[in-house]
Amino acid sequence: MSSSAPAARIAVIGGGAVGGLIAAFAREAGHDVTLCLRAPLEELTLSTDGEVLRPALHFVTAPGQVDRHDWVFLTTKAQDTEGATGWLEALCGPGTVVAVVQNGIDHAERVAPLLPDGAEALPALAYMAVERVAPGRIVHHFSSELHVPEGPSAKRLEALLAGSRLTVRSVTDFRTAAWRKLFTNVAANPLTALLKQRMHILDDEEMRSRAEEILTEALAVAQAEGARVGEDDVRRALRANLAVGPDGGTSTFYDRLAGRPMEHEHITGAVVRAADRHGVPVPLNRLLLTMLRAADRELREG
Fold it and tell me: Helix 188-195 crosses helix 205-224 at what angle (to 10 degrees)?
């Protein structure tokens, strides 16, 4: 499988589930791919569609080991963005596009201040069910889409990944798209993480009702923020959660299970902060945020 675009130099910051998948599929498409990591890695494997890929990647662990690249995919958790500053300074120059593949609703605002002049932050929403089961071992369950705001950089990204297993979709209203994506995380992520249970918890009718109430609060906030969303989006998010399957999980669930800091401030926290800006009551999301902060403190102090 090869891309119709000329081979490009691509750097992926972060070797987690999403970063590993993007790196593997970009390499399969014929690009020169460097994976920027905190800890050394000898090999990355990606289990997908009944096969195991072992892409020939460059593995680096320090910004001093890299130079300018054409494309950078920032796939660290949102709370680790500032920790990638050294990588961004080393990898980016005029014309470099940084695809910010993170959860939340303020991708560009988080990253743009960290970039050198002439580099561009391109927000990207990841629709992919993928899990890191061990360092360097990634399991892809289904879906591999990136949704980005329409424009010249979106067209370039589409060309870059044309013919690969990564699908790029341009969206005209990215604010609305970002809130719709957040809806898929707002109920499922905190519930699975706090209960330490996989998506089967949403098979329970009472739990599904609570998830709908959490989402309905977020819907009011999104509308106050100017997103064009409605009750259909709440139902669509719940269907998407259920489609993951009972044995699936969420990124926040996987982080808590592995003892890693969680990204609740950029999911539930984003809802609560926006609610405060507009005076929208969100008691359920506020309670979840308090509980997630307590759980996260335990992880960090442990």
Answer: 140
* Cβ atoms < 10 Å from Cβ of 52: 11
Banded pLDDT at 248 (limits 50, 70, 90): confident
Crossing angle of the two packed helices 283-301 and 188-195, in degrees rounded to 10: 50
Structure tokens at 47: 């289990």
Of 93, 88, 125, the closest CA to residue 106 belongs to 125
Q: Which residues pair with 46 in a beta bridge?
A: 53, 138
Q: pTM for this one? A: 0.89
The predicted structure's pLDDT at residue 262 = 92
Which 3 state secondary structure label does DSSP give 97?
strand
**Inter-residue contact 250 to 189 (CB < 8 Å):** yes
| 155 included as an active-site residue | no
**Whole-number average pLDDT of the chain:** 94
* Helices (H), ranges, the chain: 17-28, 85-91, 107-111, 152-161, 174-186, 188-195, 205-224, 231-243, 251-258, 268-278, 283-301
Residue 28 vs residues 24, 152, 163, 262, 285: alpha-carbon distances, Å:
6, 24, 10, 31, 41
CA–CA gap between residue 62 and residue 260 (Å, rounded)? 21
For the chain, the distance separating the N- and C-terminal CA atoms, rounded to the nearest angstrom, is: 45
d(CA 174, CA 96): 21
Residue 149's beta-bridge partner residues? Answer: 171
Instruction: Please identify which of the residues 77, 155, 181, 196 carries the catalytic annotation.
Output: 181
